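Q: For a teaching session next week I want to show students how multiple molecules come together into a single three-dimensional assembly. I've collected the sequence lines for a complex. Could you give me the predicted structure tokens for the whole thing so I can convert them for display?
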Amino acid sequence: MTRNKKQGIVWISAVLYILIGLAIMGLLLMVVRPKIEQMRDSITIDQTLATMNRLDETISRTREAPGTRLEYILQLSKGTVEINAMSDRIIWNIDSSIAYSEINKPINVGSIKVLTVPISADRWRVSLEVNYTNMFNLTYDGKDENKALGEAKIPYDLWIENRGVFSGRQQIDTFIS
Amino acid sequence: MKKRGMEALVATVLLVLITIAAVGIVWGAVMPLIKTSIETSQKCMDAKVGIDTQKGYTFYDPVTKDVSVMISRGESNVELSRIDLKITDDTGTSKIVSVAKINSNEDLTVVKNIAAAPLSLSGDAKYAAVIPVLTIGKGVHVCSVSQEVPLS
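A: Of course. Below is the structure for the complete assembly, covering every listed component.
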């Protein structure tokens, strides 16, 4: 009888220890996970900013002489990219768990405008935008129409082509192959 | 008599072994060189860098002395370090200028004033050619000049 009672106590202790352990792990995860997510989002936006800079550099290289046609491998693992040919802008929107910059205040990081707007209590939309309005006419597939690119595992094969000057304005065309 | 016969046999065997070893050493030293040379030549051909004369971006303007050359690349996975552009004028003088590298299937139009540095040519531009420069390991290999294209 005493032996059985002892064994029961050992089992109860074991279960209690496991439960306490799980509770501690759960608590830790609750605290740490959002922080990890915020760090991940911050790194993703940093990388996106670098990607936008490289895209801008490729466009600048293309602008140097008519006929130049360069390829840009666009890895879009988070957010959406809008080639806004109507307003000659390229915008990359990313939903983030961190306010990347001062809220509702556009700031310039090189040639890229960064704007953070709240979309819920703990979510923000970060827009990275390059504006070419005063520089050249940006087109998609030869037309002044907008093109939205969504998240994809396989990178987009974005081509940038200098088509020369039309009506006094340089035309830089983009297309996906 | 018997001893002398043995000595001659040993000497012959030794000579044969030394000859085989010598051939082996020469083979081992020379073959990689030949192999590297063949591979590099093959890579130069596989780089598929040339001048496009069809799209109308390769020309010379004698008034402004600007030369426009469209460098095109075919489907290729050979890694380029850079591309050199060679311009020859009507006096036969040639100058080489380095331009940025391009990737597979890309086109790059290069516009240069031949009277200004770094070309500084006195005559009118007559021919253009490209020289692919490959990345081989940690170094570079300058390929031979492509066929010269007349500039009109």
